[in-house]
Each structure stands twice: as structure tokens, then as C-alpha cells.
């Protein structure tokens, strides 16, 4: 059974992608509950909900920076891991996974100390006001103690999925997120801890997820196990991990950069309420984008494995299938937002003024959401096939080169606060078309 699960060069490509994508989607949905449930509960805190929600929005860039370093090592290593397995090089696959574990642990320690001891300066740099800083600081000072747990559970879970055990990978996040859903109301309301309670529930839940994934990877069921001897970092291997992981790092890092730019501009042109609206908008985008991520991440080990095995027609079939499914899904998601923006905003706040303002911003922000499928198709293909330069360029293009400058330019030329929300759809259209077109002619046509 283990051999059948792990040999991606056999059987229907479509079924293999779906068998990976569906559990991943469930797992990512549950993983997202860590932050979404926190925001929903906190947004409904009596008297302080909107301001506390703004505080959580200010901490978002820090959380994304942690995720960026997780992607740098985790995603870069998982691509090498899949290719090594496709070539039948078991020893190299084991060494890659061990190196990634060591790198995640080392970076978690550094990130904790830097972010914890400089958190006041960081939060004000990221757009906090005096009022919102109180809640941002309450959340972050506890959340940071879970840095290692978060990085290990997320960064190593890909190695469970890449061995053909997506259901085990799904349980990594299901267990932690289910615990978070249960603990949140207990700590926030029953123990009257407010924002601190949300952070504590998240840390405990992340610890459970990390223990689960480590238990599997060091156990007998894993095809490739995590061993101490494989944790000695090789300079050549590190270079390859960083090269392939850098696109994911850039994607996450530029998400943080965009969030910082948005928060500072929204404070300037709109104030704390609009930072809260952007926090909700990002939450809705994250929820709706999960199936898209499940499809593309589910396809990635299949594409990488078959590329390593030189089964290029299967690679092309996988690219086509994942792209079509993603386009159809994101089109439906876009239409849904256009139809019920007020209901979506109402999940996070009782403030009707924020709901009305937020509904209008949602319609602007999600315009052209379907073009994200083209960006994802190009990005995933480049990463899965080890095309690091292209993946890095298109990561930078959409966020750093288009979104961030527009976030500053559009409000200044007369669009005001709406310009901050308009920058995203413009980048979706331009970036998506550019990434997909390049992938199709430079990679797909040459396979």
C-alpha cells in the first residue's frame, strides 16, 4: 500500500492530484481556523471588538514573516525531496528532510528573539496606532512563544504529503485547529483573557500539531524517516534548498510587505476602522483561496515526481488539469463575494458602519479574483520543476513591483482609501496573465 501511495508515476494524474488536493484543502482550511476563529471571536468582543481586530491585523505581517521563513526551508526542501524520490535516491531525500528540520529550528529561535524583544518598534512600524498597539502587543507577546511549533508543523507537514500520506498530513492541522476552536472561547470568554486568550489557545494548538507530525516522521509508517544523522547541514544542499524555497519566501515576504504598506496607508487615509476592514478582507480572501492552494499544492509533488522520472506528458496533463479546476473554482468564489459581501463582513463584526464600508471595499478588492488561478498555475509549475528564477521573478512582479507601489500611488492621485483596495485586482490581472503566459510558452511547450 505504501508503494502504491508513493509512486506518482503510475495511475491517473487527475486522481492523484485530487487525492492530494482534497485532504490538503481540508487541512489548510482547518489550519486557517487558527487565525480566522481568533478574528471572529475577537471582532465580537463587546466594546473593543473593532479596535482589537485592528490590533490583530497589525500583527499579521509578523506572522507572515514567520511563515515566509517556514516556506523558505520547508517548500524548497520538499521540491528537492519529491525530485529525489522520483529518481529513487532515498538517501538524498532523507538528508534533505533532516536538513530542513535543523534549519527550521535554528530560524525559529532567531525569529523569536528578534520579534519578541523589538516588538514595540516593529508593531508601530507596521501601522499600529497608540490605541491598537495595546491589543497587538497582547496578542504577539504570547503568540511568539509558539514560533517553533508553528514552523515545524507547517514546514515538515509537506514531507508527510510528499510521501503519499495526505490524510495523515490533514490530521496534522485538523488536530491543532480543532483544539484551537475549543480553547478559544474558553480562554477568551470563560477565563476573561480576551486577546491574550486567543494567542494562548493558538500556541497550545500549534504545539499539538508539531508533536503529531514529528511523531509520524520519526515512526515506522513513514517511508522516509527523520533521523538525527541527516540533520547535519550540507552547504551544497542548503544552497539548493534556499534556491528553490526562495520563491515561496518571496511570496510570503511580499505578502507581509503588502500588509505593512496597506496598514500604514489605511491609517493615513482612513484610520483604525479601515485597518479592521482590511483585516477582515484578508481573512475572507484566505478562506476563499484555500481550495485553490489545495489544488496547486496537491499538484506540486505529482509534477515534481514525474518530472524527476522524465514522464513529461504526465507533467503536462497535471498542469492542464490543475489550471482548469482552479479557474472554475476561483470564478465561483469571485461571484459569491459579489453577491453576499455584507454577510461575509458580518461574520467578523457587529458594527454596521464597518459592515457597509467593508462590503464596498470587498467588491473592489475581489474584482478579477479569477486571475489568481493563472498566477498559481505558473508559480506552481515553476516551483515543482525546479525553475527557481522564473518562480522568484513572478513572485516579485505581482506583489513587490505592482501592488506595493500602487498602494502608495493610487491613494495619492485621488482614489483615497479605495486606492489601497484597488491595487490588488490590478496586480491579479497583470501578474496572472504574465506568469501563466510565460510558463505556457517557456516551460509547457518545451516539455
Protein described:
This protein is an all-alpha fold. It has one domain (14-446). Helices cover 84% and strands 0% of the residues. The chain is built from 17 helices and no strands. Helix 7 crosses helix 9 (195-217). The longest helix has 39 residues, at 49-87. The chain is globular.
Ordered list of secondary-structure elements with their pairings:
Blueprint: H1 2-6, H2 13-43, H3 49-87, H4 90-117, H5 119-125, H6 130-143, H7 147-161, H8 166-190, H9 195-217, H10 235-269, H11 272-308, H12 312-339, H13 341-346, H14 352-365, H15 372-384, H16 388-415, H17 417-442
Helix pairs in contact: 2-3, 2-8, 2-9, 2-11, 3-4, 3-6, 3-7, 3-10, 3-11, 4-7, 5-6, 6-9, 7-8, 7-9, 8-9, 10-11, 10-16, 11-12, 11-14, 11-15, 12-15, 14-17, 15-16, 15-17, 16-17
In sequence order, what are the helices and strands, one letter per element?
HHHHHHHHHHHHHHHHH
Number of strands: 0
Q: Give helix % range.
A: over 70%
- Write down the overall geometry: globular
Structure classification: mainly alpha
Overall mean pLDDT stands at: 91
Q: What Rg do the Cα atoms give?
A: 21 Å
Count of helix runs: 17
Percent strand? under 5%
Cα(first) to Cα(last) distance is 31 Å
In brief:
By secondary structure, the protein is an all-alpha fold.
Task: State the main characteristics.
mainly alpha; 447 residues
Amino acid at each position: 500500500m505504501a508503494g502504491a501511495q508513493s509512486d506518482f508515476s503510475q495511475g491517473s494524474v487527475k486522481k492523484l492530484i485530487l487525492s492530494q488536493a482534497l485532504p490538503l484543502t481540508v487541512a489548510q482550511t482547518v489550519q486557517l481556523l487558527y487565525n480566522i476563529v481568533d478574528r471572529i471571536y475577537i471582532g465580537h468582543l463587546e466594546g473593543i471588538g473593532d479596535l482589537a481586530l485592528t490590533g490583530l491585523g497589525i500583527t499579521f505581517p509578523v506572522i507572515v514573516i514567520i511563515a515566509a521563513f517556514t516556506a523558505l526551508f520547508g517548500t524548497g526542501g520538499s521540491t528537492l525531496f519529491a525530485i529525489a524520490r522520483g529518481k529513487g535516491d532515498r538517501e538524498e531525500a532523507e538528508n534533505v528532510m533532516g536538513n530542513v528540520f535543523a534549519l527550521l529550528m535554528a530560524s525559529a529561535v532567531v525569529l523569536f528573539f528578534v520579534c519578541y524583544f523589538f516588538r514595540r518598534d516593529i508593531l508601530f512600524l507596521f501601522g499600529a496606532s497608540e490605541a491598537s498597539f495595546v491589543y497587538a502587543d497582547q496578542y504577539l507577546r504570547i503568540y511568539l512563544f509558539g514560533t517553533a511549533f508553528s514552523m515545524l508543523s507547517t514546514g515538515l507537514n509537506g514531507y508527510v504529503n510528499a510521501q503519499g500520506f495526505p490524510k495523515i498530513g490533514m490530521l496534522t492541522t485538523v488536530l491543532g485547529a480543532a483544539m484551537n476552536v475549543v480553547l478559544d472561547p474558553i480562554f477568551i470568554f470563560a477565563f476573561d483573557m480576551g486577546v491574550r486568550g486567543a494567542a494562548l489557545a493558538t500556541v497550545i494548538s500549534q504545539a499539538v500539531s508539531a508533536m503529531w507530525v514529528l511523531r509520524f516522521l520519526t515512526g515506522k509508517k513513514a517511508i522516509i524517516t527523520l533521523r538525527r544523522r541527516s540533520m547535519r547541514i550540507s552547504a551544497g544542499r542548503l544552497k539548493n534548498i534556499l534556491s528553490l524555497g526562495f520563491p515561496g519566501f518571496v511570496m510570503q515576504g511580499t505578502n507581509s510587505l503588502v500588509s505593512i504598506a496597506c496598514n500604514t496607508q489605511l491609517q493615513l487615509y482612513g484610520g483604525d476602522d479601515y485597518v479592521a476592514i482590511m483585516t477582515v478582507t484578508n481573512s475572507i480572501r484566505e478562506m476563499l483561496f484555500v481550495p485553490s492552494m489545495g489544488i496547486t499544492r496537491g499538484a506540486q509533488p505529482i509534477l515534481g515526481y514525474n518530472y524527476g522520472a522524465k514522464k513529461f506528458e504526465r507533467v503536462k496533463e497535471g498542469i492542464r488539469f490543475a489550471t482548469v479546476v482552479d479557474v472554475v473554482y476561483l470564478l465561483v468564489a469571485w461571484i459569491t463575494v459579489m453577491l453576499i459581501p455584507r454577510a461575509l463582513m458580518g461574520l467578523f463584526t457587529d458594527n454596521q458602519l464597518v459592515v457597509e464600508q467593508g462590503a464596498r471595499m470587498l467588491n473592489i478588492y475581489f474584482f478579477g479574483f479569477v486571475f489568481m488561478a493563472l498566477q498559481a498555475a505558473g508559480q506552481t509549475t515553476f516551483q515543482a520543476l525546479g525553475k527557481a528564477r522564473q518562480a522568484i521573478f513572478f513572485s516579485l512582479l505581482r506583489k513587490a513591483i505592482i501592488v506595493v507601489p500602487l498602494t502608495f500611488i493610487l491613494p495619492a492621485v485621488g482614489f483615497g482609501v479605495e486606492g489601497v483596495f484597488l491595487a490588488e485586482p490590478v496586480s491579479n490581472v497583470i501578474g496572472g496573465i504574465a506568469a501563466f503566459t510565460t510558463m505556457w510558452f517557456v516551460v509547457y511547450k518545451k516539455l
